[in-house]
Design a protein that fits this description.
This protein has one domain: Rossmann fold (3-Layer(aba) Sandwich). The chain is built from 10 helices and 12 strands. The strands form 3 sheets. The chain has a 7-stranded mixed sheet with strand order 6-5-2-7-8-12-11, with helices on both faces. A 3-stranded mixed sheet has the order 1-3-4. A two-stranded antiparallel sheet has the order 9-10. Helix 1 runs antiparallel to helix 10.
Length: about 280
């Protein structure tokens, strides 16, 4: 019996799992067929969880990203699952107990990725990787994203947690936001240019003088981050992200994909559009 309670996920997270599973299958099929030269491809999950989840709607237990990845055929050459929670690490180890191609890492994914995993996916070594970065909030360092972009060998699915950002950082009156909360977004964004993206001057003055800056829309902030992935991290192809909404139609997070390959961009764009249309 599992020693921890399964993470509960909503419909939007089930859609995300479907998107990643579909692309992972296509990605592994393409790279496994590459022979001139042969490529060694990795699956990386930076916030892997325990491998399974409970759905909010039905209470059913469903496979998480690690379980889905292990079921992909043809398989990846190696798998790296990372989590900070020791109970989830233990669950991942049980999941992969008979798999010699799986390495489960216990620790902060920001350190593990940069020090242990990304060095195994160097472009010049004919290594390629699909990396899922699905933090629960603003728990990711920009250095991880920037390193992946610079390496050119790593494609990334990335959760941009706009609900956490709006709740804790992007208040309408930004003067009331604590320095600690601002630092969380700076760490994720990479610098303080998020302030320029998230706020714009008030359109007009009020009866009592100038008004505070206006908060940008979610889509405007998301587009600014997309441009940052292209122009700062160096990913050549970043399609418009998929907005994941809760039952109240509020955006919980944006799912980004970033790659150096145009064919990857086209495939994910088609997958995103299919799920956007299906959710409409």
């Amino acid at each position: 019996m599992d020693e921890f309670e399964f993470d509960e996920i909503g419909y939007w997270s089930e859609v995300k799992l479907d998107i990643i599973r579909e692309y992972a299958h296509t990605y592994s099929t393409i790279l496994s067929a590459q022979t001139k030269p042969p490529l060694h491809h990795l699956y990386i999950d930076g916030f892997a969880g325990g491998g399974r989840h409970k759905t909010k709607n039905s209470g059913d237990i469903v496979s998480g990203s690690p379980s889905n990845a292990l079921a992909v055929r043809p398989p990846f050459r190696e798998y790296h699952f990372i989590d900070l929670d020791q109970q989830k690490v233990a669950a991942l180890e049980r999941l992969a107990v008979e798999r010699s191609d799986v390495i489960v890492h216990s620790g902060d994914c920001n350190d593990v990725l940069l020090q242990k995993v990304f060095p195994r996916a160097k472009y010049e070594d004919y290594k390629r990787a699909l990396c899922v970065l699905d933090p629960y909030g603003l728990h990711l360092d920009w250095a991880v994203v920037a390193t992946a972009g610079r390496m050119r060998s790593i494609e990334v699915f990335l959760n941009f947690p706009v609900a956490d950002i709006n709740r804790n950082v992007l208040w309408r009156d930004r003067e009331g936001v604590s320095h600690t909360q601002q630092q969380r977004l700076t760490r994720y964004w990479g610098d303080e240019t998020w302030k320029e993206a998230a706020y714009k001057p008030a359109r007009q003055s009020g009866l009592f003088g100038s008004q505070p800056d206006e908060k940008a829309s979610n889509d405007e902030v998301a587009e600014a981050f997309r441009q940052r992935l292209i122009n700062v991290a160096g990913f050549k192809h970043v399609p418009r992200p998929m907005a994941m909404r809760n039952s109240n139609n509020a955006i919980v997070y944006y799912l980004y994909f970033a790659s150096s390959k145009p064919v990857a961009n086209d495939i994910v764009n088609a997958i995103f559009e299919k799920y956007r249309n299906g959710a409409a």
